[in-house]
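We modelled the chain as a single entity of 501 amino acids. Its sequence is:
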Amino acid sequence: MQGSRFAFGPFVFDPGAGTLLRGDVPVAAGHRGLKLLEALVARPGEILAKGELMDAAWPGTAVEEGNLTVQIAQLRKLLGPAIGGGEWIATVPRVGYRFTGAVEQSDATRKTLPLPDKPSIAVLPFVNLSNDPEQDSFADGLTEDLITDLSRIPGLFVIARNSVFAYKGKAMDVRAIAGELGVRYLLEGSARRAAGRVRINAQLIDALSGEHLWAERFDRGLEDIFAVQDEATAKIVEALLGRLRAPPERNRPKNLEAYDLVVRARKMFDESPQMAREAHLMLTRAISLDPDYAEAYRWLAMNHWMGWVHWGEPFEPARSISLELARKAVAIDPNDAGCRWVLANLLAYERDSEQSEAEFAKAIELDPNEADIWATLSDIDVLGGRIDEGLEHIRKAFRLNPFPPSWYYLTLGQAQYAARDYEAAVETLRRDETYRTSSRRFLAASLAQLGRLDEARTEVALFLVGNPHFSTQRWVATEPFRDDATLEHFVDGFRKAGLPA
């Protein structure tokens, strides 16, 4: 994202790129740490209240103050002492924190992406105009639902959620945003929810000409929110394509509290084991309120899958529960691409490759713009020995989602390792976006294959701090390998790096 770059002492921090460098060496501060640092360095010398910092790092989420204390302590440790002694981040007792160093700010620009050969659009985060900050989740959910609705329209190219939310709360020129995302059209708007009613303003802009193609205000009862979404989608498609070939109807929630819970939970389940447990409670509650809400089953299935694949929880009953929930989601709404790809992924882990491929194909047919489908398919391709296809699919995912979540970089690095492009894998896996515990095993393997064994051992030690029970044997048992040569290649890299057998 176009914005600012901050230099202080030996550090250069680019919030848009998500990178913090000490000289030329990346510093792994993590997503929350970078959000806190961005808030602090943007206003050096000013006192920032604890609540303001917590909103910056955990937007729309209620967290305990202790989480902020831990993140600040980790930042201080990573940054080390300030020039002349003391801390870069000073505590102001009972109030908050202040950045003490001199900061030099400069412009940081990203390259412009080429336009696709079809009408292309990004839905920017809708602004919450309610006095209640708790309604941020509602505005975010509206944005996400419009992205989903538009991405299902044949003939459109639609940017993914993660990339558009990189612009939340930032004032930028529409042409600059469109150039960075590689789209021609932008949808922006606002939402106000109060007293059982919702007011939505939306406008469609041609970023090349600056022309407003369509604008409308909707003032309805809250129970009509999904009808408003459908109406807005139809108007946008009519403006861009001149006609609407309606996709199959989506399963809509019948209970607004259930909808609110799902909107909040789907942001949390892959953050940490603790956040995943909170998401589990929210999703379970949503299902109890609305037993026919397909998306709630879908995310609960993913939550269980994350538990046994990434958080080290026992295979059973999580594995069988996740598959049952995914099947339930598809049974309720067979036209939801999200439910389809979650089931496809789980079937791959069940070693049911034929049915998995069929579900992936159906998901892509329903929503070819869903970047997560392509990224997940890349992972399954690589472990199945289809490495070229895996690289092609993860690159397609990046085009649809130019500012993706960290697991995209992990998936790309894994594919590069499988292709024996170890230098590229190291470069990818050392990016701040993915330089964290769950990807260090692939970084260590890549370094080991390059003969850089001391660096590999360091990464293994860091990995095992967060994953003390890891074993290569267990990892192989959980992953859906279908190609012996690919499996042996990963095991060889893990062995050379010194990961436990």
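As a brief sanity check on the tokenised model: Residues 225-241 form the longest helix (17 residues). The chain has four domains: 3-107, 120-241, 252-336, 396-501.
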